[in-house]
Write a structure and sequence with these properties.
Number of domains: 2
Number of strands: 9
Largest sheet: 5 strands, antiparallel
Distance between the termini: 38 Å
Strand order of the largest sheet: 1-2-3-5-4
CATH architecture of the largest domain: Alpha-Beta Complex
CATH class of the largest domain: Alpha Beta
Helix content: 40-55%
Length: about 290
Amino acid sequence: MYHAPPKSCPPPSLVEAVEASLPSAAWQPLTGGLTNRVWRVGDHVVKLYEPRFATPLFPNDPKAEEAALRALGPDGLAPRLIAHLEGVFGAALIYEFQPGPSGFHDLAGLATALHRVHRTAPPIGLRRLPGGSDAILAQTQDLMARLSKSYPDLTGALRDLRSAPNVVAVDPVFIHTDPVAANVVQGAKGPIMIDWQCPALGDPAEDLAMVLSPSMQSAYGVALPSDAAATFLAAYPDPDVVQRYRRLAPFHHLRMAAYAMWSLENGRVATARGADLELDALRRAVP
């Protein structure tokens, strides 16, 4: 059973390590994420990793986040890294605090920012995601195998998509994999993406699918207008990726429906409504 980590008091050993690098300041817990413990300390963020709270779709790797921040921070696509700390507290990162509201306040700007990430040379050592519709179905089957019981709607949709036209893999690029509303901050110059603990080499359509996932929007209290998807996709600069996303959308929606049920069974912030939203979106996406 998943239990959200406590968010309030940092371990004394972490405070000592951080204050060796930063001026002393009050520690303010930050909320929004579901996995790690995060505080604002002056003009910086301290993130303490909780490796046991990784999920089947989203790893929790401080070294991967460090690499992503080093690659993207100088271009304003991610926070600037200050330090990586290791100690009895575990692993932690210090990076610059990004002022501004979180959420999907500028979908066109987010589409452009994601495209810039996808065109950035990836850091060495990122995990590589299998691509194409067969790989997404395999991930879905793995999630369903982890459930305590079978769900007829999921089983039926999986059966139907097995007979759908195959979408082959493409050459992988640098992707975030989790650009949900809580992981996007509206900065002065446009959207900045945070929480890079699960980046990958993969299909850029993965990031588009996560932005447009109705279960993830629901989990983070986002209610996008009906024309939001069209606005977002029209702003993404590569029409081939957009067309690929449209072909893969039913597969992504089914995978996220299975993930919503896994999250519900494992005590994460989710409801059965998330799976229903994804299955409804799947039906609309099937030609």
